[in-house]
Design brief:
The complex is a heterodimer of chains A (654) and B (357). Chain A contains 21 helices and 25 strands. The longest helix of chain A has 20 residues, at 230-249. Chain A has 3 domains: 7-265, 3-Layer(aba) Sandwich (Pyruvate-ferredoxin Oxidoreductase, domain 3); 271-458, Rossmann fold, CATH 3.40.50; 555-653, 3-Layer(aba) Sandwich (Rossmann fold). With 654 residues, chain A is an alpha/beta fold. By secondary structure, chain B is an alpha/beta fold. Chain B has a domain at 13-227 and 321-338: 3-Layer(aba) Sandwich (Rossmann fold), CATH 3.40.50. In chain B, helix 3 (113-119) crosses helix 4 (121-130) and helix 5 runs antiparallel to helix 9 (293-299). The radius of gyration of chain B is 23 Å and the shape is globular. Classes of the chains: A alpha/beta (654), B alpha/beta (357). Chains A and B meet through helix 2, strand 10, helix 10, helix 12 and helix 13 of A and strand 1, strand 2, helix 2, helix 4 and helix 10 of B. Strand 10 of chain A pairs antiparallel with strand 12 (352-355) of chain B. Chain A: Residues 18-39 are annotated as: Disordered. Chain A: One of its GO terms (biological process) is response to oxidative stress. Chain A: Keywords: Oxidoreductase. Chain A: It holds the Pfam family POR. Chain A: It comes from Streptomyces microflavus.
Chain lengths: 654, 357
């Protein structure tokens, strides 16, 4: 959930099973009996489920459906899809395992959870790849049909883990998912291979029964998805229902669980579930509307940013133009050309694409035109880990250009927050006539959470007037247009778009004379222009940093971007254990909030967790001369709250 | 080539507002001092473009020149229109964004052989295949001028330059062949010093809906002086230059006694001495032929070293759907189909739940 939640709800949270003492508390729960089948029903406050299978097993779809059911039921939730870069890695191998983790609760939660309470393993590879993350005592549902000699040998199981006692510490449910699915679909006259494909829906049905999820949404979804193949649609619905019925009737599943809606955690409003890339796409469309400018996206496909290109291309009825360019450079080139013409120009990419776009970003700095550069960060360097998350492009965004080329940087902190961050980035770009970086990442892009849908009239006005006439009077009284005469407040130059009579002018990447914009190689003028461009960015209005410090702590944890969820969860754990700690999170990385230096100096210790090797910490040390301590992780995954809490505790005690 | 001097504003040109008053060449000169080397061929091209613009009769605020990097790319500074001097090789992509988002503009790209064919080769071919409504003026001087004299992607093999003291190893591009191969709908070639021919080609390009590539042979009198002398010197030119005119037999030579015919055995084109026997076989130039085959074959007649048998004029001019129009049509179709976007409905989506306080 985002920071919209009330503080009371924030206190009743994942701190419940704090592990600072090393002991994992059981899930809190009450017990009852379902009147229908006499099976026991337990009440839980939260659950973490991980679906894992082969890349071709449809685990992402299964996770998405369970998420939708859960969202419509009204739980708070947070998701973590995790999949390989290969489209179809060799079947049954460890690199081919795809998983989807979902954390849902009757209260406000912040992360997809550290460790699953339930693992669904569709094959031996999925079990092997995930078992280390599963705490003892957790439930494991395995598809026994896949635990035959070859698939087990493929991943190095010499003996069957379901039989050799290695899973004794877990609550294992062996289910012949494939056989049961084929059996359930025998009326449909499908080939074995076709029928087998529905086994993910069988598993979804079983889990939906276990957690009392509503089913109508999934049935409607399946009928829509396979509208052109009604037989396949009905087969999937049948498999889904068979899974549900299997849970209800078989004795192996003696208990089902209820997780009540998180009504207390949410302020009044209408909600939907949303992923980071979808929220970002909507933020861009909204920004175009709010600015009353056509939105123009120039982009080249790249993981994990392509979804934004896909989404925006579906909304042409908002006047959105999407241009899939020949390369990353042309993507930003077209966006900049459109900005010159008076559009809200946007380019979307990931780190390797930013590297290619650097020269054009420098041109945009020189031209002083509004432009949004959306970087969905992934593991680097080079191709790195395309489907995994990282925050290691901060310094690239900050400094990755020739010359002094300052660019504002905005970072969203949760999936839903990508909406607001996009609007904020557009505000800065339009007001100050500058390219702006938005640094999201793979975790935010693909993760999802409930979002309180904003009233459109509550959104900010982004309208920016174009220049319409002369803005300067020469000594002889002639009225002229000077393209580089600045607004004294914002230092922005006028945005004079082609088609405006009398304002014909030429701009370019060569240094320009202050005011006239004519080519100038004058040393003093260059010095002035470099300093002025820097001053313009330094003077951008950003809100002061808000510190959450209820108990007057001596240690501050400061983060940026997608680490918000894990850091906040860790902070809650510490506080629940009686350990005071202050927390603050940066939305603006350039310029920093005005009060940042003051905030940093008011704490004895500052800890900066980052999914890189300390890039923000370096900026803080350089600018404020504070002894900021880094806590870093670059394994392609988001921080776990437990691990962060331990690290913060150590920092406090050190 | 148009039959009359009267410019026929095509459907796309009609989207660009017209000038209210009659324009003159002076209207298109900016107040900036032109800073090419004295004697540079660029001056002649600039004068021809400034001289031709009034004939177009478009509001000059609706004209934009976008360039890359290189000597010729300074061009926009000297035009009293909107302009952008961008970065090396990228002008076609920037111009694509401008043209596709603003169909009320006439967008021109000014580029050179290094800018368009080396660092920016990718953008050039993709603009051509998409058929974006751009007029691309490619100044080809077969040398890198601004960086002081290295060989370019159109320099002849063996060329001795600062970076190739033992001679260049690179086989050159033929820009016209390249453009035809890249699905260009309009390809022409002209020469900087022939103002009349240059203007006629500009006129045809301006009239063309879609990407028009105009290769302009341009003399760099500092680093590659006389590169096109064979095409300019009256005596030599008669033998070297093949002037193409749509609908006319392809004849050249001092006496008009050479012609281009198709070799019946290979299907290729070749130059022959025209006799009464073979006169009927002389190819009649058809710039509007659907198939690019003959245009491509014409582009291959020139000898890359000597420039003998260099065709100039409009090699190819065919109509096919223009990217800007298609993009705009999709926006209109989406509005027609789904109604003008409703932000509130979009944000709400289909799957919501309500929390009551």
């Amino acid at each position: 959930m985002t920071s919209q939640v009330s503080s009371a709800a924030e206190m009743a949270d994942e701190a419940n099973d704090a592990v600072l003492g090393g002991q994992r508390a059981p899930l809190s729960g009450t017990t009852g009996t379902d009147g229908g089948n006499g099976k026991e029903v337990r009440r839980l406050d939260r659950v973490i489920i991980r679906f894992a299978g082969d890349s071709g097993d449809g685990m992402q779809l299964t996770g998405d459906r369970f998420t939708s059911e859960t969202a419509s039921f009204g739980n708070d939730l947070s998701t973590l899809p995790n999949f390989p870069a290969e489209i179809r890695a060799p079947a049954g191998t460890l690199p081919g395992v795809s998983s989807f983790q979902l954390h849902f609760a009757d209260h406000d939660i912040l992360t997809p959870g550290d460790a699953p309470n339930v693992l669904v393993a569709m094959n031996p590879a999925a079990l092997k790849a995930n078992i280390d993350d599963v705490p003892r005592g957790a439930e494991i549902i395995v598809n026994t049909d896949e635990f035959t000699k070859r698939p087990m040998a493929k991943v190095g199981y010499a003996t069957n883990p379901l039989e050799d006692g290695s899973l004794e510490a877990y609550n294992v449910h062996p289910v012949p998912l494939t056989t049961l699915t084929i059996e359930a679909l025998k009326e449909f006259g499908l080939s074995r291979k076709e029928a087998e494909r529905s086994k993910n829906m069988f598993a979804l049905g079983l889990l939906s029964w276990m957690y009392h999820r509503p089913t109508e949404g999934t049935e409607t979804f399946l009928r829509q998805k396979f509208a052109k193949k009604p037989q396949i649609a009905e087969a999937n619905v049948a498999a889904f229902r068979a899974g549900w019925n299997f849970g209800e009737t078989t004795e192996d599943f003696a208990v089902s669980y209820e997780v009540a809606p998180a009504s207390q955690a949410f302020p009044t409003g209408t909600y939907r579930n949303i992923s980071g890339n979808l929220a970002l796409s909507y933020g861009l469309i909204a920004a175009g509307r709010l600015a009353d400018l056509p939105l123009y996206l120039g982009s080249y496909p790249i993981t994990p940013a392509s979804d934004i290109l896909h989404e925006l291309s579906r909304h042409k009825n908002f006047g959105v133009r999407t241009f899939q360019a020949e390369d990353e450079i042309a993507g930003i080139g077209a966006a900049l050309g459109a900005a010159f013409g008076g559009a809200l120009g946007v380019t979307t990419t990931s780190g390797p694409g930013v590297a290619l776009k650097s020269e054009t970003i420098g041109l945009a700095v020189s031209l002083e035109l509004p432009l949004l550069i959306i970087d969905i960060q992934r593991g680097g360097p080079s191709t790195g880990l395309p489907t995994k998350t990282e925050q290691a492009d901060l310094l690239q965004a900050m400094y990755g250009r020739n010359g002094e080329a300052p660019v504002p940087i905005v970072a969203p902190q949760t999936p839903a927050d990508c909406f607001d961050a996009a609007i904020d980035a557009a505000r800065i770009a339009l007001t100050y006539r500058t390219p702006v970086f938005l640094l999201s990442d793979g975790y935010l892009a693909n993760g999802s959470e409930p979002w309180r849908i904003p009233e459109t009239d509550s959104l900010p006005d982004l309208t920016t007037p174009f220049a319409t006439g002369p803005n300067h009077t020469l000594a002889d009284g002639t009225e002229v247009f000077w393209p580089y005469k600045r607004d004294p407040q914002t230092l922005a130059r006028p945005w004079a778009v082609p088609g405006t009579p009398g304002l014909e002018h030429r701009i370019g990447g060569i240094e320009k004379q202050d005011g006239t914009g004519n080519i100038s190689y004058d040393p003093a003028n260059h010095d002035l222009m470099v300093r002025t461009r820097q001053a313009k960015i330094d003077n951008i209005e950003v809100p002061d940093l808000v510190v959450d410090d209820p108990a007057g702590a001596r240690t501050l944890v400061l983060g940026w971007g997608s680490t918000y969820g894990p850091i906040t969860a860790a902070v809650r754990r510490l506080r629940a254990a009686g350990q005071p700690i202050a927390q603050a999170h940066l939305r603006h990385l350039n310029p920093f909030p005005r009060n940042l230096g003051e905030v940093l100096k008011s704490y004895d210790k500052v800890v900066v967790p980052e999914m890189n090797l300390g890039q923000l910490a370096m900026l803080l040390r350089a600018k404020y001369l504070v002894d900021a301590h880094s806590f870093n992780q670059v394994n392609g995954m988001p921080f776990k709250a437990e691990q962060l809490a331990t690290a913060l505790k150590e920092a406090i005690d050190a | 080539m148009p039959d009359t001097e009267e410019l026929q504003h095509n459907e796309l040109l009609q989207l660009v507002p017209k000038a209210e008053a009659k324009q003159s060449m002076k209207d298109f000169k900016s107040d900036q001092e032109v800073r090419w080397c004295p004697g540079c061929g660029d001056y002649a091209v600039l004068a021809a473009v400034q001289g031709f613009m009034p004939e177009l009769g478009l509001a000059k605020e609706n004209i934009a020149f976008v360039s890359g990097i290189g000597c010729s790319s300074r061009f926009p500074y000297y035009m009293n229109t909107y302009g952008m001097h961008s970065i090396h090789g990228r002008a076609p992509s920037i111009a694509t964004g401008l043209a596709t988002s603003r169909r009320d503009l006439s967008v021109w790209v000014v580029t050179g052989d290094g800018d368009a064919l080396s660092i920016g080769g990718n953008h050039l071919i993709h603009a051509l295949r998409r058929n974006v409504n751009l007029k691309i003026l490619l100044f080809n001087n077969r040398i890198y001028g601004l960086t002081k004299g290295q060989y370019s992607p159109t320099s002849e093999i063996g060329k001795i330059t600062k970076s190739t003291p033992m001679g260049s190893l690179d086989a050159p591009f033929n820009p016209v062949s390249l453009a035809i191969g890249a699905e260009a709908s309009f390809v022409a070639r002209t020469v900087d010093s022939d103002r009349k021919h240059l203007t006629s080609v500009l006129r045809a390009a301006a009239e063309h809906p879609g990407t028009a590539l105009v290769e302009i042979y341009q003399n760099c009198n500092i680093f590659n002086d006389g590169a096109f002398e064979v095409l300019k010197d009256k005596e030599q030119a008669a033998e070297a230059v093949i002037r193409l005119e749509h609908g006319q037999p392809i004849l050249f030579g001092a006496e008009g006694n050479k012609g281009v015919v198709r070799n019946q055995a290979t299907g290729d084109l070749e130059v022959v001495a025209v006799t009464d026997e073979n006169r009927s076989q002389v190819l009649v130039h058809d710039a509007h032929a659907d198939s690019p085959t003959t245009a491509f074959a014409l582009s291959r007649l020139a000898d890359a070293d000597t420039l003998h048998h260099t065709p100039i004029g409009v090699l190819r001019s065919v109509e096919r759907p223009v990217y800007d129009t298609l993009m705009s049509d999709q926006v209109d179709a989406a509005v027609e189909r789904d109604g003008k976007g409703d932000l509130g409905a979009l944000l709400a989506g289909a799957d919501t739940w309500t929390v009551v306080g």
